Amino acid sequence: MPDAMLFSSPTNAGAGVAHAPSGAGASFGHYTNTRESGIPWLERVPGHWTVRRLKTCLARNDGGVWGEDFDPDGTIVLRSTEQTVGGDWKIEDPARRALSASERAAALLAQGDLVITKSSGSEFHIGKTSIVTAEVAALGCCFSNFMQRLRCGRLTAPRFAYYILNSPIGREQMVYGSNTSTGLANLNGGVIGNIIAAWPPLPEQEAIAAWLDERTRRIDELVGAKRRLIDLLAEQRTALITHAVTKGLNPHAPMKPSGIDWLGDVPGHWEVKRLRHLVSRIEQGWSPEADQREANDDEWAVMRAGCANGGSFDETDNKALPAGVLPDPSLEIRPGDLLMSRACGSTDLVGSVALVRACRRKLLLCDKLFRLRYRRKLVTPEFLAMALGSRLVRFQLERDLSGAEGLARNIAQSAIKELVVLVPSVDEQRAIVAHLDAACARFDALTAAAEAATTRLTEYRQALISAAVTGKIRVCGTASVASSEAAPVGEAAIAGRINGATTGTTRTANKHFQRAVLAAEIIARIGQQQTFGRVKLQKALILAEGHLQLAEIESQPVRAAAGPFDNAMMRSVQSQLQKSQWYEYRKDGKPLKFVPLAKAGGHKAYFDRYWGAKEAGFAALMGLLAKLDTRRSEIVATLYSAWNDILIDKKPVTDEALVAEVLTRWDPAKTAIPQAKWRAALPWMRGQGLVPTGYGAHTRLASRDRSKE
Questions:
Q1: What is the crossing angle of helices 168-177 and 158-165, to 10°?
Q2: Chain centre to alpha carbon of residue 647
Q3: Cβ of 271: how many Cβ atoms within 10 Å?
Q4: Which end of the chain, N or C, is more open, meaning fewer C-beta atoms within 10 Å of its C-beta?
């Protein structure tokens, strides 16, 4: 498989019929005593389960309140916007309303209540269900009249009901039962109460819910890791483009002052130009009242502003021009057009640029898009599109944006004309574009693979929930560790990770490979920082080894100028990263020193196999290191190692002893850091739980300092 983290696709994951997840079904037990449910889509259920409607399991099924007025000191009233599609809470700026005592008493939420969105224009949101946690209940909040509150009876486990309602079993019944009014789907207590499901006895409900809590948490961690990789790839892609269109491809090219304070030096043979010198005119489109549907291929259509998002032109993001409305042929979009988003509700999307490489006929420019008529003798459209999508231009656009917060943001033609763009010769522009096209193709392939993995994991999560809550798999009283025989080749590691196994294979990798796996995961999580290089990677490796007690790493650090450092390990890591085609270290790399290669992200399955059980601790450690610059990382790693050495030597640990150890028994370069900074770091480390235990090797005095090599 191209990605060892993928499962094979679940069977009918979203069809309302729950099947054991394909490729992992043999990992779970099955009920031997089953019977026909009497419901065609539910099929057979365990013999001791009962099939009944949700309303028979509830103590309450009621609607919410909204009150008459806004009150900054009033009661928090939760809305559907505080719920995610997956059923979690995201409470950031809740509404506070003036409620009467009776309204508040009737709608006050308690821990274990289930809250359902019952009105939405999207089937992704209609029926989404969140459970009231202790933290939410502590807010003393109520819920709005666009939501429904369910309170389970004494023989129903709220979290089991939560999983039913957020599975295809529950969600599709709600979508099917909702009526439509003016484009909105609506639910009511009756439709929700009539949801059919299979119910085991209460102890089994609680056990299944607990099992799903743990399994879905592990899947969510893997999805989160893939999404972080996608974000990292996007960040590195943008950084690569920005560097190429502002510094060129020759790192040794002579530089000159740009004459602009915030821009700094630029290549000596490049010109600094305002965009008005590179375009002959800027055209704005037209937006008549259009049908709320995508046009057929033979119809005229008006483009939406979103067609230029993401750097590529999406011709399907359009609205059909109504019959009887005559098009303006001068606004028809043609291949070679360079489009820019003029206005959008999101600041991040205003100024998005797309080059139209190909498109069908009869597509019209809308009034939220600009068309830039560029001067071909000065600039190629491909280079200009990349330059306008760089951080250099993004900085200028965000500085010049106008519009009230929460409303559509706009950029004026006058501001666009004043954008600064660096311009090499046309031949050099073409060379830069060719280089970036090849590099971006690699980034895009890696991103597509990560997105596919995320989709597969999400599908598997849904199938797993459906299978568990309908009795298609037995998760109570059976072995839950997936075997490598139960999953296709390349999937055993992730199956073991989700089922709690700390290893997915009997084969033991050598420490050099395992070090590289750990290094690759560190780079994937925090390597996008421009200050991240060989020294900070070494600090992260040392801290991860000691703090998480990773016996596989076996570092032998010396007391170097830049902190604890194992030069032999670092050379091995760099070699293995490149050999595995994950990352390449470039000493003079700008803006990033660890550049992703063709198989970036391929280390993740190995990381999960070796240290998946320590994911929470690793994530917390990376979160701390992400906030530290190189100097602070050096201080923390040095103190940690010195502290660990004192524990190994069984000496008393005091702040004075630690500071003295660093300043008098380490490399003399440490004295360049003020003593106050060493002392200030110690309470911070204790507060973050970053305290050593005497685990690992004692540091050695360096005969030669190679930490700066």
A1: 60
A2: 39
A3: 14
A4: C
